[in-house]
Design a protein that fits this description.
Layout lengths: L18 E3 L14 E3 L8 E5 L6 E4 L4 H7 L3 H7 L1 E4 L2 E4 L24 E10 L2 E10 L39 H5 L11 E9 L1
Antiparallel strand pairs: 1-6, 2-3, 2-5, 3-4, 5-6, 7-8, 8-9
Amino acid sequence: MNDYTNDFSGSGDQADRWNFYGNPSDFKSGSSSIPYCDFSNGVNAVTCTKTSGVSGIVTVLPASLAQQCLAVAPDPSTLHDGGCYVSGKSVMVPPKRGTYGTMGRNIFRDSGFKNVDFSVFKNFTFKERFNAQFRVEFFNLLNHSLIFNPYGASTNYGGSGTQNDMGTPKIFGCGCATPDVSAGNPLVGSGSSRVMQLGLKLTF
């Protein structure tokens, strides 16, 4: 994950990393963005929010979250321009202007894709050469919500304005969709709600 929007390092590379403090496991992707605190109106008028990637609803969070950012931010000017992200006891803030952030490469891990499919088959033999097979198949048997990993080919993961751009707080870290919808194949892709399929095969 990089900052493709700001160029705090001044290198012109447009792929800076920020400073991260805490436990990377606190920053988990889901159906909403990672909580963000906006310092653009000054430290006395900070707003902290998170945005649902499904409904677009913005939830206002306690402004006290911003204190965690102020405690570790190395540069008030980059904090003003970039804001910060807070989740649990972990904080991610922009680096000091003219420097590179301390955040390591690939430090965040997604919760993974967990899905349970189930099928039942019954074979029938009518004669030596005539057989039939009836099957019932369930996909996503437990009907759990399956949010996709925001870092992947189907998310346009590199570049400005994506879920991995620290400069786009409304969707940063947000899965925002199921894998099938994100990849553009909701009829045959994985991640949809429970689907049942019946099949009958005759062999002769």
